């Protein structure tokens, strides 16, 4: 459902999410998360499902040594038409 919400296809598996066209709002959330080194909660409208915004949480992912390795997105998408 998240892929449909973003307007993406299954062929994007393994790619860095925020580098894909149409994911600019997620990129901005990731940047804010990484700059603050803290969780960020926002509401976003997915490019593949214009309409109501859905909750998105971005969390910094840490390696065992404490370095930030990336961002984990939690997107609450129930059903995309």
In words, what does this structure look like?
The chain has helices at 2-6, 24-36; strands at 40-44, 54-62, 68-75. The model has no long low-confidence stretch (mean pLDDT 84). 22% of the residues lie in helices and 27% in strands. The N and C termini lie close together (9 Å). With 81 residues, the chain is of the alpha+beta class. The longest helix is centred in the middle third of the chain and has 13 residues, at 24-36.
How many beta-strand runs?
A: 3
Helix/sheet category: alpha+beta
Helix percentage range: 10-25%
Radius of gyration (Å): 13 Å
Distance between the ends? 9 Å
Choose one word for the global shape.
globular
Separate helix tally: 2
Q: Numbering strands along the chain, what is their spatial order in the largest sheet?
A: 1-2-3
Poorly predicted ranges: none
The description of the largest β-sheet is: 3 strands, antiparallel
Instruction: Give the mean pLDDT.
Output: 84
What pattern of helices and strands is seen along the backbone?
HHEEE
Strand content: 25-35%
Record the SSE blueprint.
Layout: H1 2-6, H2 24-36, E1 40-44, E2 54-62, E3 68-75
Antiparallel strand pairs: 1-2, 2-3
Key traits:
81 residues, alpha+beta, 2 helices
Brief characterization of the structure:
The protein has 81 residues and is an alpha+beta fold.
């Amino acid at each position: 459902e998240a892929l449909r919400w973003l307007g993406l296809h299954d062929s994007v598996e393994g790619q860095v999410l925020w580098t894909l066209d149409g994911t600019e709002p997620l990129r901005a959330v990731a940047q804010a998360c990484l700059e603050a080194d803290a969780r960020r909660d926002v509401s976003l409208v997915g490019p593949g499902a214009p309409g109501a915004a859905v909750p998105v949480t971005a969390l910094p992912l840490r390696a065992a040594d404490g370095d930030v390795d990336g961002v984990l997105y939690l997107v609450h998408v129930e059903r995309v038409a």
